[in-house]
Amino acid sequence: GAVVSQHPSRVICKSGTSVKIECRSLDFQATTMFWYRQFPKQSLMLMATSNEGSKATYEQGVEKDKFLINHASLTLSTLTVTSAHPEDSSFYICSARDNRVGYTFGSGTRLTVV
Amino acid sequence: EDKVVQSPLSLVVHEGDTVTLNCSYEVTNFRSLLWYKQEKKAPTFLFMLTSSGIEKKSGRLSSILDKKELFSILNITATQTGDSAVYLCAVGSIGGNKLVFGAGTILRVKS
């Protein structure tokens, strides 16, 4: 089946630094990937839709200069949290759409900003 | 604005019980409804429903969609402690790529 690999699974960084999270589709090509954020005991909140070869589409209220998305190839999208602050600490999950099985999620990245 | 509402928000049952989780939606140009199970990490896919009245089944789990009344149910029979998780319902629309998620139902199965 479709597999999406997300790295790192856990990261701790200092306030003010930037963190990059990678999302790869391993056995299919994903022209579109999605980035979600999830706070404890809450549902997935879509942050942005990542389109291969073009700019990402951000949801209302999501700062595009803070959450940089790059979808350079059909199998890789990256999310960079720039100048991270403690309030950016969260669980970030990517998802890719595959025509065969629908939507497949990565394993998530727990970001802690100290 | 597209909306997905799940109920109950949380549920505690004993092993062996049967549970029914509900998902109602309002979405423009409905395409599909999906159920996911989320334990400590990312959600795992359970079912995708596109047609009314056709039950999908996988072991002790089953789900059905009613496109007239705009809702779906997820049934779990003979629950086990391993069924404890958050169950998420999401809806996709025609012409759109993204999914809209409900808040989830937290299920806890006690032994």
The profile of the biggest β sheet of chain B is: 6 strands, mixed
- CA distance, first residue to last residue of chain A: 37 Å
- Total helical segments of chain B: 0
Structural class computed from helices and strand pairing of chain B: mainly beta
Biggest sheet details of chain A: 7 strands, mixed
Brief characterization of the structure:
Chain A is mainly β and 114 residues long. Chain A has strands spanning 4-7, 10-13, 19-25, 32-38, 45-51, 57-58, 67-73, 76-81, 90-98, 102-105, 109-113. The mean pLDDT of chain A is 91.
Helix-strand layout with pairing:
The complex is a heterodimer of chains A (114) and B (111).
Chain A (H helix, E strand, L loop, with lengths): L3 E4 L2 E4 L5 E7 L6 E7 L6 E7 L5 E2 L8 E7 L2 E6 L8 E9 L3 E4 L3 E5 L1
Parallel strand pairs in A: 2-11
Antiparallel strand pairs in A: 1-3, 3-8, 4-5, 4-9, 5-6, 7-8, 9-10, 9-11
Chain B lengths: L2 E5 L2 E5 L4 E8 L3 E9 L5 E6 L6 E3 L2 E6 L4 E6 L8 E9 L5 E3 L3 E6 L1
Parallel strand pairs in B: 2-11
Antiparallel strand pairs in B: 1-3, 3-8, 4-5, 4-9, 6-7, 7-8, 9-10, 9-11
Please give a structural write-up.
The complex is a heterodimer of chains A (114) and B (111). With 114 residues, chain A is mainly beta. Chain A is built from no helices and eleven strands. In chain A, the strands form two sheets. In chain A, strands 2, 4, 5, 6, 9, 10 and 11 form a seven-stranded mixed beta sheet that branches. A four-stranded antiparallel beta sheet of chain A has the order 1-3-8-7, with no helix packed on it. Chain A is globular. Chain B has 111 residues and is an all-beta fold. Chain B has no helices and eleven strands. In chain B, strands 2, 4, 5, 9, 10 and 11 form a six-stranded mixed beta sheet that branches. Chain B has a five-stranded antiparallel beta sheet with strand order 1-3-8-7-6, with no helix packed on it. The model of chain B has no long low-confidence stretch (mean pLDDT 93). At the A-B interface, β5, β9 and β10 of A face β4, β5, β9 and β10 of B.
